[in-house]
Amino acid sequence: MRRPFAISRRHLLASAAASFAFGHGARAAEYSRSWTFGNVTVSKIVEMSAPLPARRHFPDAPLDVLDENASWLAPHFYDPATKNDISTYQAYVVRTQRIVLVMDGGYGDFLPSEAERPGQHRESFVDNLRRAGVAPEQVTHVINSHFHADHIGWNTRRDGENRVPMYPKARYLFDRKEYDATATAAATNAGTATAFNACVKPVMEAGVGDLIDGDLDLGDGLRIVATPGHTPGHHSLAIASKGRRAILSGDVIHNPIEVLHPEWTMGFDADKDAARAQRIKFVDAHTDVDVTILAAHFGGPTAGKIVSEKGGKRVFRTLVP
Ligand SMILES: [Zn+2]
User: Who has the most CB within 10 Å: 275, 279, 280, 288?
Assistant: First the structure.
């Protein structure tokens, strides 16, 4: 195993150069961004950012609340002009001295090109990964918060007619409950079958997948934590190093408004009650504590903390980059 790249000035300069390649510096900064927690570096690698009608995310919620909170939701998480939530689809790369872990990664390239979503820029995902200093063959571990198609896409890549693991030297750690539930759903749901067969099955067939049960300590301050609800085998990744803490929370929350209203039903939650309970527990546990939250779909500055304001109102405050 080669020693993982460290984040260096050279990489920052490479990112700056990439900004010009995109032709818009401020926007390009959103394709990759890094944070350090003790001996752990986390980088986001963005596949795309896309607006979605807020009503699709929150089928029953009083959406006026989004406008009332536009001062901290806009422009990165909500667009008051169109009433759209903005969701970012991205991978997180977590690096220690010994580990290069990739969590999630967007839709990948398993769908036919005519099914691509507006704003998707799949071709550049691997380039963005490399710009962040990560070559696919350096990755030692891959985890998926869950098996929805927007999280497993880049587990694999095209190889002629076949699909092969994107990260050839990594172990893919799949939650057994998630695996079993998705395999069962794939028997009757064509969309689930397409994603599962393209992005999970080839990993197992290549012999680089391991099924794990519940929590797992990976060492170096990284711990996989079961957070079921959004899906049966959903999990998050907790980081603790040298007194610094962060959590890669996956889809426990989807938009920062859920910090204020964790009780809202989210349209894509598999088990609405379990997801709500998990979300409330998560928000309660992370309010006014020094834990940086990196949720799967938060774009722009992405990282932030839950803080309670005067009167107890909870908001998500992004870190100053
Ligand atoms: Zn998602």
Answer: 279
